């Protein structure tokens, strides 16, 4: 649905030039939720605004539903944007309009007839669970309700892709979960493709199929969330599970990081290492999280015994990713 190739965005010229995006490439398959994760200043907002050409890329290509966005004239770009919805951190609702009138606004711009407009607004408010708020004004709504209005408005023109610019970062954790549940429901029910940017790991963990990690304008890692989360050296896993560092192993001990996902998380790994291989296992840290519909986990441990290699081979065959940190042999 969205293909970005070698995207570059530079603000200013000469010595004053600031490179916001540097050779960014990614693909968002139709019907998936794709997250771009990064800290403030990483270039996330610039990237998502380049998708609908609110920012003009310096170079590179942006293809949405088969259309090269950067080559469109003004009229063609306006038509293309009708198929790209966008929601924002600060909602940007019109305070002088009711909820229904806010949702109807893009339909007015497109040119819907009044009867069609009213029917579509009713359908959209039902979709986001705000039927009873149609005649209410934004000032009377909670933050979560305002974002639901923003989502309904973004869906008014039946877009093929929804862009989310930090849409939950101004909300409390419980409201954030409800908005993410709504986005996931829309993705599943109507096949909506969603490209979202966020600095919150919980957003990626809860709803994203794939993720790209952006640092200083460059993508440093991307892939399926559940696959990256099962790799000990991935940045995503280290962000999920901060590791215990600078540990000195005892003589004859080996420090390992074990990463696992799916049904492997249900296996009695530690007890098997102890019983079958006679190893002493000193657990340094351990975590298991739900990522989408799958459990992922990480365990750091110090192993002592004569059958460490055999034990690690067993773990490898089980599907556990093993990273060795330190070995000290007598």
Automatic annotation (TrEMBL):
Keywords in alphabetical order: Amino-acid transport, ATP-binding, Cell membrane, Membrane, Nucleotide-binding, Translocase, Transport
Residue ranges annotated for the ABC transporter domain, each copy included: 2-241
Single Gene Ontology MF annotation: ATP hydrolysis activity
Any matching Pfam family: NIL
Gene Ontology cellular component list: plasma membrane
PROSITE patterns, sorted: ABC_TRANSPORTER_1, ABC_TRANSPORTER_2
One of the GO biological process terms: amino acid transport
Family membership: Belongs to the ABC transporter superfamily.
Cited PANTHER family: AMINO ACID IMPORT ATP-BINDING PROTEIN (PTHR43166), METHIONINE IMPORT ATP-BINDING PROTEIN METN (PTHR43166:SF30)
Record protein name field: Methionine import ATP-binding protein MetN
């Amino acid at each position: 649905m969205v293909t970005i190739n070698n995207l570059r965005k530079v603000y200013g010229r000469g010595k004053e030039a600031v490179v916001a995006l540097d050779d960014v490439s990614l693909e968002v398959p139709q019907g998936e939720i794709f997250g771009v994760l990064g800290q403030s200043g990483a270039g996330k907002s610039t990237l998502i605004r380049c998708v609908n050409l609110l920012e003009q890329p310096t170079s590179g290509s942006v293809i949405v539903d088969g259309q090269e966005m950067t080559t469109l004239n003004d009229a063609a770009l306006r038509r293309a944007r009708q198929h790209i919805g966008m929601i924002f951190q600060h909602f940007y609702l019109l305070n002088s309009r009711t909820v229904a009138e806010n949702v109807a606004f893009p339909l007015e711009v497109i040119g819907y007839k009044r009867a069609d407009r009213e029917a579509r607004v009713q359908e959209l408010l039902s979709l986001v669970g705000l039927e009873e708020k149609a005649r209410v004004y934004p000032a009377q709504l909670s933050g979560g309700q305002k974002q639901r209005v923003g989502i309904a408005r973004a869906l008014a023109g039946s877009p093929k892709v929804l862009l989310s610019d930090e849409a939950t970062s101004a909300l409390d954790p419980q409201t954030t979960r409800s908005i993410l549940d709504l986005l996931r429901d829309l993705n599943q029910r109507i096949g909506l493709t969603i490209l979202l940017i966020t600095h919150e790991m919980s957003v990626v963990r809860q709803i994203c199929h794939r993720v790209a990690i952006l640092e200083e304008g460059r993508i440093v890692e991307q892939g399926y969330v559940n696959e990256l989360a099962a790799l000990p050296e991935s940045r995503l896993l280290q962000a999920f599970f901060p590791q215990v560092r600078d540990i000195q192993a005892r003589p004859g001990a080996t420090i390992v990081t074990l990463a696992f996902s799916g049904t492997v998380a249900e296996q009695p790994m530690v007890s098997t290492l102890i019983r079958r291989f006679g190893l002493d296992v000193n657990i340094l840290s351990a975590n298991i999280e739900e990522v989408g519909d799958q459990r992922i986990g990480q365990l750091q441990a110090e192993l002592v015994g004569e059958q460490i290699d055999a034990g690690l081979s067993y773990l490898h065959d089980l599907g556990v990713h093993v990273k060795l940190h330190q070995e000290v042999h007598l």
